[in-house]
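Ticket #4471: structure output looks truncated?

Reporter: J.K.
Steps to reproduce: submitted the chain below (211 residues) through the standard prediction queue, then opened the result file.
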Amino acid sequence: MTNENNRKGVIVVVSGFSGTGKGTLMKKLVEEYDNYALSVSATTRQPRPGEENGREYFFISDEEFEKLIEEDGLLEHAGYCGHYYGTPRKYVEDCMNEGKDVILEIEIQGARQIKKQYPDAVLLFVMPPSAEVLEQRLRGRGTETDEVIKGRLRRATEEAEGIEEYDYILINDDLDTCLQDMRSAIESAHLAPCRQKDFIEKIRRDVEQFK
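Returned output as attached by the reporter:
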């Protein structure tokens, strides 16, 4: 059992093909449980209908984004479908120090960058039950042109090459079931020895009396 009072947060990377429901899963996780924080990424793409600056993303210019890169203000960054995406460093580290697990929605290039800096980060890849369902979900959004949808589907073939690098695969067929699978994967990660070093050392000291 973990010691909740001394619990340090972990970074949780959530990746997956566009249209698998990653955003919905993460939003629901943060709404239902108070020990998670959702990282807000910076991006140079335009907001979609209903999105707000500072809520879904920080919508900034290419020049502002490049300045963040120069100042080492991002944990990771990558280009995707013609735009920049990146994770602000300070917010993530502050949340972890408060004991919250920080959820990052990023694609595989960014996930690799995070894993290099934080080897104990938990990598989750969300998948649809089938390729047909993936296309249906993308077209069901009704917010993107046919050309953009085709681009996202082509991108999925590239992203599929790196799935084995992730710690857990989550199949989003039923939202509630997938949500519980996501939470179980994150919570089980806290039981790994690499995240229990302080507790292990304490027990080692305490059992010395039995020699």
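Triage note (M.O.): checked the attachment and the full token line is present. DSSP finds eight helices and nine strands in the chain.
Status: closed, working as intended.
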